Amino acid sequence: MSTRPTQRRNGANHAGGRTGGKSFDSRSSYGSKGGRSTRDGDRRHDAAPVDSARMRGEHLSPALFERTQELLGTVLTFTGPADTLVSTYFRAHDRLGHRERGVLAETVFAILRRKLEFGQHAESGSGPLERRLALLGLAFTRGIASVKLVASAEEVDWLERVGQIDPATLKPRVRTNLPEWLYERLAARFDAAELENLAAALNQPAPLDCRVNVVKASRDDVLATLREDGFSAEPTPYAPNGIRLAGKPALQKHPLFVSGAIEVQDEGSQLLCQLVAPRRGEMIVDFCAGAGGKTLAIGAQMRSTGRLYAFDVSEKRLAKLKPRLARSGLSNVYPVMIDSENDSKIKRLAGKIDRVLVDAPCSGLGTLRRNPDLKWRQTPQSVGELTQKQASILASAARLVKPGGRLVYATCSLLNEENAAIAEAFAAAGDDGFALHRHMEDIAATRAFIIAHHAQGQRADLDRRLGRHMHRDMRELEEDLRPRGGHERLGQQGARDLRIGFVQRAHGADGVVEATRLRRRDRTLNIA
Fold first, then answer.
1. What is the DSSP letter of 487?
2. What does the alpha-carbon distance between residue 335 and residue 309 come to, in Å, rounded to a whole number?
3. What is the mean pLDDT of residues 92-108?
4. Secondary structure letter of residue 145 according to DSSP
5. What is the mean pLDDT of the chain?
6. Residue 481 pLDDT more than 60?
């Protein structure tokens, strides 16, 4: 039931992060991420991947440079999600080839990621702002040599001077490339080093993850097939059915995708479905199903048994589920369009559902790897409006849960007011007799480290830290999920506590997602 007012999850995967050192130089080249994969694989960007190694230093034509400025001017109006504006532009200029689309998209998204930093550098240049930003974006993504056909000698000298600026000399907020209101909120939560690591990681593109449909294949078999076909594929670090692919290869025509053996889905979403912990034969509701990526993951875990309702307020989004459902081979999924969280269809299921997933509409500020424009489009006012909707959806979804059942509430936001604060307010209302209990706080304390170090490829140190924290806490969670007395009865008499935990849901994907678990005497409400 995605009542999402913003483009939360469907941003393009384009290069635009940095790993330190000078801002850029003539040798810089960052792999293009022109191909697009959303968190749940709902749709892909029109631009094809660009071979950046081949393109390194290649001179950009004046015509393509003009297109870059034109597209950038459109996107910087922020009249809609950046990927939508880019796609609309490409449809209006359908003679652009895959290579040209890749260069345009990569450059624009790099500028969105570093808009504050590039804006400061642009002040020392001359000419229209879009031209200065376009030159900076191209120099950053393709190297200064790429603009020598379109830049004057003075502009090349200016770019070289900018390239010698040490980012460490910039003000902290400029280095993080965050708007002032968001920087202040995150600075109140993280220390300076954590915030800078987190911001640097969010300015990296997200990887391409897939989920193996266990109804049709095993991860080992799929990995073997992909490797035989020339893909660089590895198991995801934590999701048991996930695969991570290097680069952004096209998968839509691959036999594994066509047959429904794999779906594009970020590891974070896969882990969220693991928190739902579906069982065979249960009745489960995906309350904000959208195009159904998590619905399909849950249905596969149920081994196509029981009944799985996919609720959403958008007929268009549910229509996207149909071909995916047909590929999946699942027979237990029932898409249901509703008019709001208070629809009478929901009321008829009150107290009958074993597990409910609420992937609530949110600011999407944990998805800046995919959607860098969101940090410039969201405001404190828009976040305030979302929190009211989140509280209403949570209250409505909670009424569905049967005794012994579970509710999982999730957002992909970094902001406390969209996560723990919603759970705490729900518990404080006291209508269902919840009490607060803190859980898994080590993950909360280290999530900035986790996302930043994974983005920078520092896996050994990362695994040591996670070995002390996440692995232990996931074992505790699994212990809670274990059936008791022959059947699962999570909410036992006397267990009246609200557990708030933090799970690194977007590790290696697109941000940080908070996880909360709620327990009551006769029901368990998990808010993830």
1. B
2. 6
3. 94
4. G
5. 78
6. no
Q: What is the CATH number of domain 267-441+486-527?
A: 3.40.50.150
Q: CB–CB of 423/516 below 8 Å?
A: yes
* Number of residues in the chain: 528
Judged by DSSP in three states, 59 sits in: coil
Q: Return the domain boundaries, the chain.
A: 22-165, 208-264, 267-441+486-527
Q: Where are the beta strands (DSSP E) in 236-367?
A: 242-245, 262-264, 283-286, 307-312, 333-337, 353-359
**Which tens digits make up the pLDDT trace of 319-361?**
999 999 999 999 999 999 999 988 999 989 998 999 999 999 9
pLDDT recorded at residue 430: 66
d(Cα 243, Cα 234) in Å, to the nearest integer? 6
CA–CA separation, 46 and 51 (whole Å) = 16
The pTM (predicted TM-score) of the whole model is 0.76
Q: For 10-47, what is each residue's pLDDT tens digit?
A: 333 333 343 334 445 433 332 233 333 344 544 344 33
Superfamily (CATH) of domain 208-264: Sun protein; domain 3 (3.30.70.1170)
Please enumerate in sequence order all residues whose Cβ is within 8 A of that of 63, keeping only pairs 6 or more positions apart, or say none: none
Map tokens 């550098």 to a residue: 121
Same fold, 208-264 and 267-441+486-527: no
* Residue tagged active-site, from 273, 288, 362, 412: 412
362 noted as active-site residue = no
Other residues' Cβ atoms within 10 Å of the Cβ of residue 458: 13
- φ and ψ of 309, to 5 deg: -90, 130
Count of CB atoms within 10 A of residue 480's CB? Answer: 16
Q: Output the pLDDT for position 432.
A: 62
